[in-house]
């Protein structure tokens, strides 16, 4: 989505944590794809590991094994390494020398949040607060820690220079929610409480925590995917049309939705799959949820009274990410046969296992009787429009270098998201057991039904 102006384009990407897994699995491949597209900043890695320029370049080559050797060699030639402790001012002085006179260097913090204060302070001490800073989620653990994190970053960087990266927002299918809504004017007349009965968002994963017990037990499903990914999906589905496609206009409309949103603790379920307590790194008495379901309401003119349900979980029946919009049924069933049942139309945005949009409507069944049955009008827009688009990290790093903040989280939005889910984070509430391979605790079905 980026459309960079030359004066806004950063020529330097500083990667704190360049020796970590994120850099190896995601960031090096993203930099490769950016190079293919002609975006070629100098890359300066910073970490505490005892390495040098050549060993970091070799690590990049290993990450990119099997791709075009010429592109890999060109990318490797732009990589430099600054070894040092994140609390040592000398590290940042040597970093500043490596950056040179780039007026807008971009620092990507692929490191734990408890180091953000040290790095932001060190960058400012070396005069590098003139650039941008990119931080990975999680943006705190609750509203208090989110505000503390924002205060830390704002000590040295203005809000417009802070890019809070959530790779989920860079996915092609997520971005399509926005375009599909506002590029098809016929939807506007029915996209409201008068015609829509319910919205259900599901993010189910058939796999379990995959040996990540030490990490996951400190996080849980609500912090991992609900507070960020899924609430952002709700905001995209429910927001008003922005005045333009600028970052400010998009953020303003999403934040309005989040401010109007409320949860009901009586319509929320936390679950934990059987066997989770046996995972390495998980506390034997853990009450961390691996499943969460909740019902949300948006107190606005457009959505008052329409339930928005969210379901997310590990070790579930299948891997599925989708948003389902269920329209009101006709007032009477003229074509329902003997039972005269009136059926709803359903619009489904599916992101996994495929990128598809499916509209389920009613059509006449063959024969003499006037009986309706559901039919699907489906399109795989990846196939129709030519591929799946760029990787989320490729898109978001490119946008950060260009200063395009449209797909990044804003301070107000982060704090509102924590406000919404914080009442559900109380670990004293029951955690219901569910069997791996199921759809979670059945207690969630009454307010967050599968459609």
- Total number of helices: 13
Helix content: 25-40%
Indicate the radius of gyration in whole angstroms.
24 Å
Summarize the main sheet.
9 strands, mixed
What string gives the helices and strands in order? EHEHHEHEHEHEHEHHHEEEEEEEHHHE
Structural class: alpha/beta
Mean pLDDT: 90
Which term fits the overall shape?
Answer: globular
Q: Indicate the low-confidence ranges by residue numbers.
A: none
Determine the N-to-C terminus distance.
32 Å
Strand residue content = 15-25%
Strand order of the largest sheet: 14-13-12-11-7-10-9-8-15
- Strands, total number: 15
Quick structural summary:
The protein is an alpha/beta fold and 451 residues long.
